[in-house]
Amino acid sequence: MSDKQHSIIGAGVPRIDGPDKLAGRANYAADNLPADMAYGYGVFSTIAKGKVARIKVDEAKRMPGVIDIFHHGHFPSLYRTPSSFAQGNKVEETRLPFEDERVYYEGQFVALVVADSFENARAAARHVEVEYASESAVANLAQGLDDNGTQAGSGNHSRGDASGAFEDAAASIDVTYHTPVETHNPMEMHASVAYWDAQGNLTIYDASQGVVVERNALSKIFAIAPERITVHAPYIGSGFGSKLWTWPHAVATAAVAREVGRPVQLVVPRQQMFTTTGHRPETRQRMRLATDANGRLVSLRHESINTTSFTDQYVETCGSVTKSLYSCPNLTVSHATTQVNRGTPTSMRAPGAAPGLFALESAIDEMALAAGVDPVQFRLDNYAERDESQDLDFSSNHIVEATNRAAETFGWADRNPRIGSMREGREIIGYGMAACNWEALKRPCDARVSLRADGTAFASCATQDIGTGTYTIVAQAVSDVTGIPIDRITVKLGDSSYPDGPISGGSWATATTLPAIAGAARNALDEMKRYATGDNGVFAGASSDELDVVDGGLRNAGGKQASFAEVLDAARYGSADGEAHTEAADSQYSYRSFGAHFVEVRWDPGISHLRVSRVVSAIDVGRVINETTARNQVEGAVVMGIGMGLFEATEYDERNGRPVNNDYAEYVVPVHADQPEIDVILLDYPDLAFNEYGARGIGEIGITGLAAAIGNAVHHATGKRIRELPITLDKLM
Ligand code: MOS
């Protein structure tokens, strides 16, 4: 690829789906209204543990518009999916809806009303009478440890002799951090619209970050071939991980649509998005760190316990980054779970790393202070040249430059390290920083590209655009390879009938999808050249390798040029098509992204007001494909990190396990008034060992470390070390 062709890669191309979204033409799951559609509304458990003893539906059934009411005594029998990530049929809650009378969490589906309107379904749902045999619920992590102790987790690691080295060290700390449940609150609520045709084929519109995996999971659950299921998710009002895997409401909607013989729509109420569609679990993390007399880490132990449900084990791998971020010969990382009466947790933006780096990067700050070293210098002193956990080189690691550039832009050199010493008017200013880190993954992918006789191009892949810009970067890749301008490229995603693409998660959609798209575009060009050089071709008799691709056409060495439209017209073909399959990344290197956050907080003790006033983040994610959407991802992640640091926590009543702040009013997320100045520095070093674009993905890294940087700044301002998120005002007074 020439430099000229590469100019669109990296450019801040505006989102190509933007106009449709702004004009209301973008259809989200619940916008689909097939003819004769009925509406579902759930009845949700009001206890967190026990059984449905009796369920009375007679009165509700007689209410206006009610078609049927489903519950564990009246529901089709389904099959469990093996829930295998490798097989691509994973779900997070493996229990089938209405499988039995057991209740495992408050807000679990216990009945589902289907009626002719949303209002009628909801009204009838309120008249379904459920009698429970309630048992004492396990309401939080501490109660879980008392009730069932811990179960061993996964992702553990050990090297050297961490406890021996700890005993002999010059300085050490032993501290425990706690992070609460956080609930995903995308603007678009979970919703499903499902219908079956006369041949028994299922179509479902679902708010999904993974249409292929959902198709495969539903194929297991309904025991029909995957080819007979189509999952559509052309637009998603974000998901943050809660829409990665299929949840009970989607299964239930598909099942009841078959029973009533009509399309059924079900929207999950915001309250149940706090119960039945996953959450980031509560964690307790014990950190033991020790240094030698020179401030070098000699021992690091990260022991994490997270809450999981009684139906499934979800491990929050808090130590995933700890294994490789710093050089340390003696290190152990362990993960365990404890069961509580909550729904099954799931990935939330940077699962593992987000709570894990709160603990690690706060502890590193504490260790630096204990060792008497500036926190930036401490990190640079303990820089890991290679991935010591896998004994592999990093493919590309610019964390030192990221740290130094962010420090300089932020003005770290002006920091007076004495606590509370930096003041402006009534406010005390705190400076804090933390590293950020995320793995880079690339999964197998298929894609298709057609170059059409009207001069347009069409690209398709069964991945999704969850608002991050995937449509746009796919168009950029097609334009890059073919020279066709962006406005003549149509990109189709979010449909499981397209070639299999990745989930929109793990920050791997870009690195996974673009090489497959580029490969398909090149294969389409090869077909174009065969047409051009064939019997009726514009360049009949020439050989394909004599032809260059120039500006959406072909040119020979003599300077004769023909557009793709002219080539196809002459050869009498409607399009030149290409498909490609690309493989997962190899394991030659440790592929990771790196960065550093620098945060300024302002604490006004007179009125007990804390705010984040300035953030500088330098991020090393390989090549940036789209300057605008990449910057948006980091800015959005920083905002979400401020939420994690200062506001977000789902509170459960310790007496009964019920989430109490289960709405937008009381589950506090940052609003515009909370936004600081955010300065994002994108390093842009292509990681060509990882894929041909050198891109590692950017969705998650920005939230990692941010809460720790806030906590470290709060400590600098106030002298208080808050080890339990969120850092609310009561903890500072
Ligand atoms: Mo992300 S938590 O992989 O949607």
UniProtKB/TrEMBL annotation:
Q: Which UniProt keywords apply?
A: Molybdenum, Oxidoreductase
Q: What range(s) does the Aldehyde oxidase/xanthine dehydrogenase a/b hammerhead domain occupy?
A: 23-136
* Enzyme Commission number: 1.17.1.4
For this chain, one GO molecular function annotation is: xanthine dehydrogenase activity
Work out whether the entry's keyword set contains Oxidoreductase: yes
Gene3D superfamilies reported for this sequence: Aldehyde oxidase/xanthine dehydrogenase, a/b hammerhead, Aldehyde oxidase/xanthine dehydrogenase, molybdopterin binding domain
So what family is this one in?
A: Belongs to the xanthine dehydrogenase family.
Protein name as annotated = Xanthine dehydrogenase, molybdenum binding subunit apoprotein
